[in-house]
Amino acid sequence: MSRINGDQRLPRVPTRADKVRVPVWMLLVALAFKGLWLALRGCWRHRVVVGSLVAVLLVVHRVGLAGLGALVGGLALVAVVWWRVHGRSFWPVVWWLWGRARLTFVYRWRWKPAMVHTDLAIRMPTSTGDQVTFDEYFPRIRSIRSSRSVDVLRVELLPGQTPASWAEQAEALRHVFRARRCQVHGETTRFVRVSFHRHDPLTRPVPPASLDDDSDDAGPDPAGTVDPTGARRSSDVGRLVAGLSAVPVGRCEDGTEWTLPVRGSHVLIAGATGAGKGSVLWGLLRGLAPAVRAGLVELWVCDPKGGMELAFGRPLFTRFATTTDSIADLLDDAVARMQSRTAVLAGNTRLHTPTTVEPLIVVVVDEIASLTAYVTDREVKKRIGAALPLLLSQGRAPGVVIVAAVQDPRKEVLPFRDLFPVRVALRMTETDQADLVLGNGARERGARADEIPRALPGVGYVLHDGNPDPVRVRAGYIDDAEIGRIVTHYRPTPRGGWTPDISGYLDDDDPFDGLDQAA
Ligand SMILES: Nc1ncnc2c1ncn2[C@@H]1O[C@H](COP(=O)(O)OP(=O)(O)OP(=O)(O)O)[C@@H](O)[C@H]1O
């Protein structure tokens, strides 16, 4: 690092001899002032370090080294007690201090050379008539936010710079600051947020999110599903319907929950073989399960792989098709439901609200390319080719949505790829595939789906809420035991509700007879 010397001004280039001669004492005084000015400026720039050093020296001067040790021990004790008693207020302070330390010892330390050598500093030649010098301008770090795995710097752009010019240098900055990954997010104006990811928080499998009514271990509860009076508590229904816009699927890189919208959206999951598409599909099915049990969602599932991936969940599904013929029928029926619903809803509402009478229909398709590119029967291919774009272009508002997985996201394979508003890019085999899934420039903004290691299935990139910057995520790992539990616990009740079995009371002697006689 010491050899990178962008910190220093370029040597002055004399253009003609100095004319003014000054006495030596005046030169020495000027040099002394300059030295003082540089020292004060250095102290101000590194005020945290200088302040800490001065504080330590003062303590040693007053109470000696033993006193300093006692003070450090006391502070450590207070920190441990604070952590145990109120961890929620303790950790933000720790991360703030950690961020200040990294700002001082890592980022400020290497900032100027990094800016010079990545062309993010501006050097302007100026001439005084006697000499040609260079004025230097460096982007300023305005704040830092640190956590266990990432440092986010908020940097003020210099005139003429754009977030794109920073994004181009992300790889170089990553190496200078020895980060695992560097991502640049542009703010609306003037600032960029540069994230240096140090550790990968997604290397361990992510446990599946807890479902709201997991605590209700009573198993399928028909009386609660379709209440005999048809009046399941409206707060529950409201909560379940709201949950359809953010179904928990896994975890984002920043530790927050990763959710996908299903109501009012279609979802495409793209990834090479073994990338973990199954875990995203199962994550969605699992997240939808409480609403399935409540009768607010119907799952119409197509598994062209003959049921290899999804047959496990059969009891949760309203319809399940595995052959291309039966899938074509299923899709035709979905189109018919969509059109009849549209006729009823048109002019009344712009987005269907699921009810037990008219539930949200989620058409799930594993390996959708089997239906669009690899079908050999021309008649069936034509039917599927007509139904899918109709559902994708018109199904969101009347509540018939598609969740599909695909290995190869090319247009020739999936011509209506762009009709999916929500897309997930898991591990890809080629560099341009992240752009195909998430849109042009996604890879440059950080969606390096082709660099996801094989050892991390379920890891991928998504775009959130119109934000062009991709977010790295990992789907929760759902094993066969969990699928079995979900299927048993949440399978829907047959329509018509629950009829209590009272035959035991009516067999030989009617219990009400006695009452009649007594009366
Ligand atoms: N989120 C995850 N966390 C940990 N391991 C996972 C995760 N998702 C999948 N795996 C593991 O990776 C393997 C491959 O996953 P999966 O079958 O879902 O991939 P896929 O993309 O559906 O592949 P294919 O297209 O060949 O069916 C699984 O056997 C599973 O053990």
TrEMBL record:
InterPro entries: AAA+_ATPase, FtsK/SpoIIIE/SftA, FtsK_dom, P-loop_NTPase. The keyword Oxidoreductase does not apply. Residues 253-435 form the FtsK domain. This is FtsK/SpoIIIE family protein. The keyword ATP-binding applies. It comes from the Bacteria. The chain crosses the membrane at residues 20-40, 52-83. Residues 202-235 are annotated as: Disordered. Pfam families: FtsK_SpoIIIE. Keywords: ATP-binding, Membrane, Nucleotide-binding, Transmembrane, Transmembrane helix. ATP binds at residues 271-278. It comes from Frankia canadensis. Gene3D superfamilies: P-loop containing nucleotide triphosphate hydrolases. One of its GO terms (molecular function) is DNA binding.
